[in-house]
What does this fold into?
Amino acid sequence: MIKDITIGQYYAVDSPIHRLDPRVKLVGTVLFIVSLFVAEGVFGYLAAAGALAFVIHMSRVPFRFMTRGLKSILIIMLISVSFNIFFTEGTPVADVLILRSMTWEGLEKAVYMAIRLIMLILGSTIMTLTTTPNALTDGLEKGLGFLKKLHVPVHELAMMMSIALRFIPILIEETDKIMKAQTARGADFESGGIIRRIKAMVPLLIPLFISAFRRAADLALAMEARCYHGDANRTKMKPLRYEHCDRGAYGCMAAYLVLILILKFVWKGWIAG
It folds into this structure.
């Protein structure tokens, strides 16, 4: 399951989504997440799923590789779905044992919750799979540059987020090495139930934290040795500039949001009627 985490990884391939400005992808990701909470009914979720499928196709990232990240949220999804099924008031599914606690309203809400969570993860994963950490840092810093007038350390915040994303695959690889080393010494991470597996993961924490702090210290020393002082008088090798495809992408986002809002009001009118 450790290897299945895809957030923070970059999939190198030439595609229209890869060539977009990182600011466009950041804005698009935020708007897509907002649209998932605004959308209502079958038509709204179908529109969101269609837009997501189109972007995945245009990104040229294998769908099987992208869906690997869903395994890491399986437990969270099951908990969320279970709470919605059993704790939502409404009409019981059947008058038989455990089915008395399940309601049709809860089942409907759980299905929408699961679909929303899956699309949220996939939408967020597309951004990191198609954007390098350096480009993501530049996009955040450029996009939030107006906050500098309010004395917000935009560059430092963008750099911290970039370092955090870059460290995710490194720590995953480090965790895998530690697991293999402990497995060779007799540790068992596969057998038993969920509780036993969680307990078996506890011995991984100490060496993993030590490795993370050591890497952080090495990174800090390297930045100090190179006289890194934030964004003061720094220039960019590839400054960000909007192209025609970026403006077209913004237009598609606006059309998508309008469609989601229209479908929301249509769905409300259909339910009320």
Q: What stands out?
A: DSSP finds nine helices and no strands in the chain. Residues 194-225 form the longest helix (32 residues). The mean pLDDT is 81.
